[in-house]
Every structure is written in structure tokens, then in C-alpha cells.
Amino acid sequence: MILLNLRDICKRFGPEPVLDGVTFDLRAGERVGLVGPNGTGKTTLLKIIAGQEEPDRGSLELASSTRRGFLEQHPEFSAQRTLWDEAREALRELLDLAAEAERTASEMARVDQPDQRQRLGERFDHLQHELQRRDAYQLDHKIERILTGLGFAPEAFHQPVSQLSGGQQNRLLLAQLLLQQPDLLLLDEPSNHLDLEATEWLENYLVESSQALILVSHDRYFLDKVTTRTLELFRSTIDSYPGNYSAYQCQKAERLEVQRRTYERQQAEIAKLEDFVRRHRYGQKHAQAQDRQRKLERIEPVDPPREIVAPPMGFRPAERAGDVVVRVERLAKAFDQPLFQNLTFEIQRGETWGILGPNGSGKTTLLRCLLGEQSPDAGRVVLGTGVRCAYFDQQLRCLDPEMPVVEAVRPAHKEFVEQQRRDLLARFGITGDMAFQRVGQLSGGERNRAALAMLAASDANLLVLDEPTNHLDLWAREALESALRRFEGTVLFVSHDRFFLNRLADHLLVVEPHRFRVIDGNYETYLHLARQSVEPAGAGGDSQVTARQESSRASKRDNRQPSRRKRRFPYRKLADLEAEIHQREDSIEQLHNALTDPQLLRDGRRVKQATAELAQQKKELEHLYAHWEEAAELDG
């Protein structure tokens, strides 16, 4: 069943449209990821779907009785209510229905007239059916489950809302929305204020839910786990891709290849025709030039490739430091309660360490102790020979909000002329007049990239980064990952972005109750160890078993107990699959050849049809490859 239908949605806030002909359908139970660079209109589109904004043109149709739920960004709560009261208020409609059902049952017991009893009985049956359909029983258990899942401790349930932090109030908004159970959930960055455990809980909750969902997120693990389809919003229009974010990336690369080749060939054909017309407009081949001009006028232009280009980013070559860059010995720090104690570890030159743990567990405090910005209660930190640090503070206090960006990133330790600073900022996506705006006028993502540019100007060989991906879109995150992988120095960073942790870290410092522990590996290593229920070596050296040894043991256990792979595809003979694969490959080759035909390139409609057919043939070929691999493993 189609739950939502958008046709030709257009919206502008200035001379250029934010949305221009956005068209797509959403089916009941479908979970869609909405992706696109910052500033392309994703939140605007969600607000139009939620009914909070009107499009300038186009139509939006919802299936009958569809209830929409949009995650607000600015909480408004009654100061007198507790966390539990506000969560329960989200169920007001169900509570009123339950109360009405009780009143109706009481009236039925009192009336004597058969017609009144029948009317009340029908109303009671309707109310009971609706309460059962919306799972309106054991509401207190539902509230407790969702509040706990989103990271609220039971002792906070009866705390006044006025005492909650901003992040906690945003989590309460999310809890209210989940409790309302709308037919269509519209979520804009729902994991922004969640730690890892709460994020994983939310992922599982959404996957198990039957609700339709449109999700905007910069968390690639979240998108991969939850979504079954991806909508790309770029250049004011929508492209649809089946599958999650990883599937989108693969298909996007294939589409770009076809779009780029087709566009370049048409441009070459146009240039050839224009050149002939220019050279022979007034010569002996005047008639042929006129014929070429008519062909030019009939060409329907192919759109340029929908290529989303991230800022290149990059850090200067790092001067060599000593072999040991940071040595931490029996470090301890406490405020109201201990954050860490007896913490001991060592970072070698060229390593990349990620710190992973819940909100409020002391990660930022640890970084500040390592940098000497905060004094530990016990223990010591020793920086190696020749170590030069640069610190990315997630609050971005390193940038003066009143200064022009091009001045704010000026390094204090060396001469760095304006053109050098502008070139540096451009490498991080701050170009043109933006470089002369005050820092305070920039968006969150722009300020983040300016702070990263300031780090790049510091010539550090140890980068200490506290949540460096905050406010960055998916493409900027990938650019930062690439820049840090190329960096020749040492990196220590805090992040909730599991994909970022997995791509970068070769060591993890994991915060657990009452201790930190070191894992020799990335996030996938951590997950593997967690699944195997092993105990890697504590950072304080309490255990003699290393994470690498435990990982090896887990692998041996896996080898001793192999599990037969389950089938994804129906049984087919290998020979039949190979024949169909060859047939598809021949079809794809024919389509590639067709897209080189000048006659075809002059007809934009035929080009689009051929391009769409090529994309479909490639998708079916990938499906056949996967089927063949399974058949070769299970039947070969």
C-alpha cells in the first residue's frame, strides 16, 4: 500500500530553488534513508512531508488516516512535570481512549434499554479494537522500555524536566515520538544526542517496528542497519536507489560512470558539430553547415553527472617524533565520582587511536589531561621527543566567533600570508566570500571545517580530535577519513561514529563501567570480541591476555564449529547461472556500444532510456553473481 505520494514538489527561499520537481512514493513499512550534502534541503523536505511547511508547487497525498510523527529540534516542556509525566503525556490519545472504554463499560452496566445497550456495546467493541490494534496495554512497561533504551536511568524517571540537560531533553522528544507510534516516522538526525548503546538500541527498535520511516542521518552504520531504500537529494531533485547506504554507494558509482561517459560523448559530439558550423558557415559547405546547425538545435541535452564532490582536505607532512608519542602512567581523575583510575597505556608513532564510550564517561576529560589543559588527580602523562600537538575541541572554542575566518585560522608560530590561508581554507571547502565572513556567521559544518583547516596549519605531528565529524555530512566525513589515513603522524580521537572508528583506528580505548581497556584493532575487532564474550587486556595491565590473543582463540573456536551457510536464493544449476551471466554481460556490452552512437546521443529521451536499462542490467548482473557464488559454495 502506498502511504505517501509526492509529485513535483517545489520550494524556494531565494532565487535558486531548494526543491525543484521532487517526486517519489513511500510504501507502508518501508524504511528510507534521505541523504545529500549539507544545505540541499533535506530538513525542508521533511517539514513539507510533516505538514509544517507548504510547498510552492506540487502535490502531497497521504493514505487515509495516516498519522505522521516528526522529530522536533526545539523541545518545549512543562517545567512542573517529571520525565515520566512528559513521556506518559505522549500517550494521551491512548490514555483518553482507555478512559472512554472504561466509561462506556460502566454505562453499559447501568442502562436497561436494549437499543442503548447495543449502541454502547458497538462503541465499546470499536474502542477495544482500536486499543488492541495500537498495543495500548501495559503502557507503563512501554514507557519504561523506551526511556531505558534511550539511556535514561530509572532514578531519573521522576526528575523534573527543568533539571534535564539539553541533550536529555532532545532524547525525551525522541522517546515521546516513539511512544506515539505514528504510521510514518520522520527522523532528522535522531542519534545526535545518543551514545553508542542507545544508538544501537534505537537501530534495533526501528528495524523491528512495522512503521514507515524517512531517516536523515550522517551515521553510516545507522543507515546501513535500518534503511531498505535510499533517496539522494542533490541539485534540488531526488534519485532513488534500492537498498541501504552501502548499496547506494555501489550503485551511485556505477550510475556516475555511465552518466559521465554519456555526457562526455554528447559534449564531444556537440563540439564537433559546432566546430563544423563555425568553419563552414559561409563557405562552400554552407548547406552542410546549416544541416549540422539543425541537428544541434534538435539535440536534447543530457544532464551532467550527479557527482557530489567533497572538499579534498589534507594535512601537511608531519615531522618525525620519537618512537613513543604518548605514555600514560597510572592516571586518575574524579569529580563527583571516579572517571578513570590506574589508567596506563602507550601510543607509538604513526598509530591511530580511537576512544569509544558513553556520554559523560570522561573521554573529553582524559584528552584534556593528556594535553595538560587539566590536572589529573594522580599519575602522569609523558609526551615523546619532538611531539607537537594540535587539538580539535568539539565546542570549537579555538575559533574566535568575531574574527573573519581567514584571520581566525592564522597560525601563531609562523608567517602565513592571506593567499596561503585562503588556499588552505579552500582545501577544506571554505571558498570565495565565505573566507571573509565572521566565524560566528558560519554554519556548524562550515565552522567544523574551518577548525580542521586551522589544525592543518599548525604543522602538528600529533592530532588530538574530540568528535571531529560533528556537523559534517557524509561526503565531508569520507574526505576527513581519507586525509587522516594519509597523515604521516599520530592521531588520537574521540568519536561516536562507528564507521569513522572502523575506517581509521588501529587501537581502541574503550570506556566500560569502572575501567578503560585497550583493544588492538578497530571497531569490527571490538564487535567480534564482544560477540565472543572475551576479556581483552585491561588498560591498567590487570590481565595478561591481549586482545590479539583472544581474537585468535575466537577464530579457532569458529573453525572448530563451522556453520553451514543458509540459502538466500532458490536452487539453480551452475551451468544455467553461467549462461545467464554471459547473456547479461553481452547485453551490457551492447548498451555501452549503443551509448557511443552519435544518433542516439542526439536524442536525450533515448539516452535516458538506455542509461536506465543499463543500470537495471548491471543490478541484475550483480544479483546473478551473488547467486552464482552461493551455488558454487553450496552445490559445487
Structural overview:
The protein has about 625 residues and is α/β, with parallel strands linked by helices. The protein folds into 3 domains: about 70-245, 3-Layer(aba) Sandwich (Rossmann fold), CATH 3.40.50.300; about 325-560, P-loop containing nucleotide triphosphate hydrolases (Rossmann fold, 3-Layer(aba) Sandwich), CATH 3.40.50; about 575-635. It is built from 21 helices and 18 strands. The chain has helices at about 40-50, 85-90, 90-110, 115-135, 140-150, 165-180, 195-210, 220-225, 245-280, 285-300, 365-370, 405-410, 420-425, 445-455, 475-485, 500-505, 525-530, 545-560, 575-595, 600, 605-635, and strands at about 1-10, 15-25, 30-35, 55-60, 70, 185-190, 210-215, 230-235, 235-240, 325-335, 340-350, 350-355, 380-385, 390, 460-465, 490-495, 505-510, 515-520. The strands form 4 sheets. The chain has a 6-stranded mixed β-sheet, sandwiched between helices. The chain has a 6-stranded mixed β-sheet with strand order 14-15-16-12-17-18, sandwiched between helices. Helix 2 runs parallel beside helix 6, helix 3 (about 90-110) runs antiparallel to helix 4 (about 115-135) and helix 5 packs across helix 6 (about 165-180).
